[in-house]
């Protein structure tokens, strides 16, 4: 492709932002001028891109008229502060924070609902869902024609990188302290994270559900176009740096044809099906990879209309950065 596009990445010094820039280079995205933006605290840092170090600048004074597309890879507050300014300047937006309402920026996973893009008008506003919703949508997409899905029960074991670089540093510090028999003083987390499991990620509301759990339910329903789908979810914090894992139970209205399920998963884009008798792990399989790994595909013990699966994927790469870049690729191919 001879045409190039001027692009900005907001949150360029975060784990997702840095990975996004890396994937733009790996996939030879037709970037003209690349503008890396962040808060005043991170301005001045450099991020490598195509053999050069690109200096990170403050987002506050950036002229969005200089670019055709901007990735928002920072928190919701940043998106809410600058997305309107970007679109007013004619710049299309791909948001990874979940801050924008679905009627303003539809949630899109290329393997599941890329057709949504055809109905949008310039400048585009698109949301890349949370890594958990992205992984689940990739796996659900090839199954919806095979099972009459009634309900999803999901336990999401989330890597600490979902909470940013500070959480990764904290897990590393706690691990070192415990291995060196030193007193442990949690800082980022409110209790010991190393060699432990925490029963929630974030603060629960009055009904006991966290923002992340509610976001996951909302995004899966939107991406799969199943607004009434019943979803039960528990997000737990696992002592893993990168790579989310999921225990998923799908309830069908009729008996599940396991052979057809396996064949569909085997042929689906974005999925690596692990052979029966084996299972994938985040560290051994998913981290650094561009697919969602699926294993332990089985019917329920006493309910043949129940389908159980184990999923794992790189939350930063596959679940966040790659999904956003794939959306951008679809835009430049047909519409941008």
UniProtKB/TrEMBL annotation:
CDD domains: ASADH_C_USG1_like, ASADH_USG1_N. One of its GO terms (biological process) is amino acid biosynthetic process. Residues 6-120 form the Semialdehyde dehydrogenase NAD-binding domain. InterPro entries: NAD(P)-bd_dom_sf (IPR036291), Semialdehyde_DH_NAD-bd (IPR000534), Semialdhyde_DH_dimer_dom (IPR012280). GO terms for molecular function: NAD binding; oxidoreductase activity, acting on the aldehyde or oxo group of donors, NAD or NADP as acceptor; protein dimerization activity. Pfam families: Semialdhyde_dh (PF01118), Semialdhyde_dhC (PF02774). Belongs to the aspartate-semialdehyde dehydrogenase family. This is Aspartate-semialdehyde dehydrogenase (Peptidoglycan organisms).
């Amino acid at each position: 492709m001879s045409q190039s596009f001027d692009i900005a990445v907001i949150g360029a010094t975060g784990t997702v932002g840095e990975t996004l820039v890396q994937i733009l280079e790996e996939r030879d995205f037709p970037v003209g001028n690349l503008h890396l933006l962040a808060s005043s605290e991170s301005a001045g840092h450099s991020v490598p891109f195509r053999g050069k170090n690109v200096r990170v600048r403050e987002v506050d004074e950036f002229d969005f008229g200089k670019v055709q597309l901007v990735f928002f890879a920072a928190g919701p507050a940043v998106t809410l502060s600058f997305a309107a300014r970007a679109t007013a300047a004619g710049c299309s937006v791909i948001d990874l924070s979940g801050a924008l309402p679905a009627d303003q920026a539809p949630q899109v996973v290329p393997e599941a609902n890329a057709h949504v893009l055809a109905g949008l008008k310039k400048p585009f506003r698109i949301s890349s869902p949370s890594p958990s919703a992205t992984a689940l949508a990739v796996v659900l997409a090839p199954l919806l024609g095979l099972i009459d899905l009634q309900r999803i029960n999901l336990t999401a074991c989330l890597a600490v990188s979902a909470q940013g670089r500070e959480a990764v540093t904290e897990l590393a510090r706690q691990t070192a302290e415990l291995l060196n028999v030193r007193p442990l003083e949690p800082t980022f987390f409110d209790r010991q994270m190393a060699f432990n499991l925490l029963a929630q990620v974030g603060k629960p509301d009055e009904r006991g559900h966290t923002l992340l759990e509610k976001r996951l339910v909302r995004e899966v329903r939107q991406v799969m176009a199943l607004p009434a789908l019943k979803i039960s979810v528990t997000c737990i914090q696992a002592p893993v740096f990168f790579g989310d894992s999921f225990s998923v139970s799908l309830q069908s209205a009729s008996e599940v044809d396991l052979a057809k399920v396996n064949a569909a998963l085997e042929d689906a884009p974005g999925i690596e099906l692990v052979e029966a008798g084996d299972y994938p792990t985040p560290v051994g399989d998913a981290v650094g990879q561009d697919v969602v790994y699926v294993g332990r595909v089985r019917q329920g013990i006493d309910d043949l209309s129940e389908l159980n699966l184990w999923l794992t994927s790189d939350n930063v790469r596959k679940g966040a950065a790659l999904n956003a870049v794939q959306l951008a690729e679809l835009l430049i191919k047909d519409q941008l």
